[in-house]
Design a protein that fits this description.
CATH superfamily of the largest domain: Glycogen Phosphorylase B
Helix content: 40-55%
CATH topology of the largest domain: Rossmann fold
Number of strands: 13
Strand content: 15-25%
Number of domains: 2
Order of helices and strands: EHEEHEHEHEHEHEHEHEHEHEHEHHHH
């Protein structure tokens, strides 16, 4: 039975849950199903990469209010779009799948209004919101779906403990386009971004508190006393929430660095990302909270030695043989930044990467999803 699956995500830019949505859709299509991705598009540029399945970028208007108002508006934009869409094409999909809090709240409202029969949601991680409105939105997005999925043991346990929900466990994967083989694009990309340092440290995900960006920058500043030609590249940056104060603190610290030492390319074009990984001497990801850490898998697949935090979810799939697992504090990160450059250490981590990557394939993830989908969808 070929399923028609509506997959909803909050952005067209490359964030972890967005990548998960697009890769899952592609794998489902290859298995003979008909996914359709719907994503909010705040700048009118559409999806950050080409896709081979049905995809719709839903226009999202600017918001002049705070985060609460922005979230409320984004939920409303999802609801308004699907009301019109489903009035024209009722029962167009066998199943609706939300990948975040916004789209889950929208689908809950659409189900209450009778537009859809049921929906599922993947909980990639749970935020510690201080806003009562955001906490309520998050709680509804977890409690109201007909089923919840998650991508790690960490959040599976949290859902059971905090909400009494037994979540369906799925996995992330890594695309075949990430490999250690040169594509010939590296030299041009290095010139475009001014990557002339030695060594080059890379992280992907932007500047925000849960990425532990300030601790990473402080550790890098310490290492530069021993490695004055080192560069730190922080790619990415698209996020729903306003981390203005945190970014200002980060940039104030960065002013002490010589020009060109810190490279902030923003959201890197999807086609350039594999080459960017390969340009790095090491990938550094000292995050203090993640749903999974998909970029870690991409870096390992690209043949880069990895430094990341010695805590779940990283410790669910990594060991001392596949990454340097460190406490996410300045001193430990600084030590690891030097240790990862040791040739024997780097070679050990890189050599042990391929067997790990083989366990995380998008086809396997799609098959896991289909098990749940078929439980919810009645045969015609």
């Amino acid at each position: 039975m070929s399923l028609r699956i509506a997959l909803l995500t909050y952005a067209t830019k490359p964030r972890g849950s967005v990548i998960h949505t697009l890769e899952l859709a592609q794998a489902l299509a290859k298995l003979g199903h008909r996914p359709h991705v719907f994503a909010l598009d705040k700048d009118g540029r559409g999806f950050h990469r080409r896709v081979t399945f049905a995809a719709t970028a839903i226009p999202a208007s600017p918001c002049t209010g705070g985060t609460d108002q922005l979230v409320q508006q984004r939920i409303g934009e999802f609801v308004q779009f699907f009301r019109q869409h489903l009035q024209q094409q009722p029962q167009d999909y066998d199943l609706y799948h939300a990948q975040d809090c916004l789209s889950a709240n929208a689908l809950a409202q659409l189900r209450a209004e009778g537009y859809i029969p049921h929906f599922v949601r993947t909980v990639h991680h749970i935020e510690a919101f201080t806003s009562l409105y955001l906490r309520d939105c998050q709680e509804k997005s977890i409690l109201q779906p007909d089923r919840c999925l998650c991508v790690s043991d960490l959040w599976q346990t949290a859902l059971q403990k905090e909400y009494g929900i037994t979540a369906h466990r799925v996995i992330n994967g890594v695309s075949d386009r990430f490999s250690s083989q040169s594509s010939g694009a590296e030299a041009a990309l290095a010139q475009a971004y001014g990557l002339t340092g030695q060594p080059i440290y890379l992280t992907v995900g932007g500047i925000e508190p849960r990425k532990n960006s300030i601790a990473l920058l402080k550790a890098f500043c310490q290492v530069r006393t021993h490695l004055p030609n080192a560069q730190l590249v922080i790619a990415g940056g698209a996020t729903l929430f306003d981390y203005r104060d945190y970014r200002q603190e980060f940039m104030a610290l960065a002013q002490s660095l010589p020009e060109g030492t810190l490279v902030l390319p923003g959201v890197v074009p999807d086609a350039d990302l594999p080459a960017l990984y390969r340009l790095a001497d090491a990938f550094i990801f000292p995050s203090v909270q993640e749903g999974w850490g998909l970029v870690v898998l991409e870096a390992i697949a690209s043949g880069r030695p990895v430094v990341t935090s010695n805590q779940p979810p990283f410790t669910e799939f990594l060991s001392d043989e596949t990454a340097l697992l460190v406490e996410p504090n300045v001193s430990a990160i600084a030590t690891a930044l030097q240790q990862v450059l040791d040739p024997a250490t780097a070679q050990r981590l890189v050599t042990n990467g391929p067997p790990l990557i083989q366990r995380y394939r998008w086809r396997t993830s799609a098959e896991m999803h289909l098990t749940l989908y078929h439980q919810l969808v009645k045969p015609p």
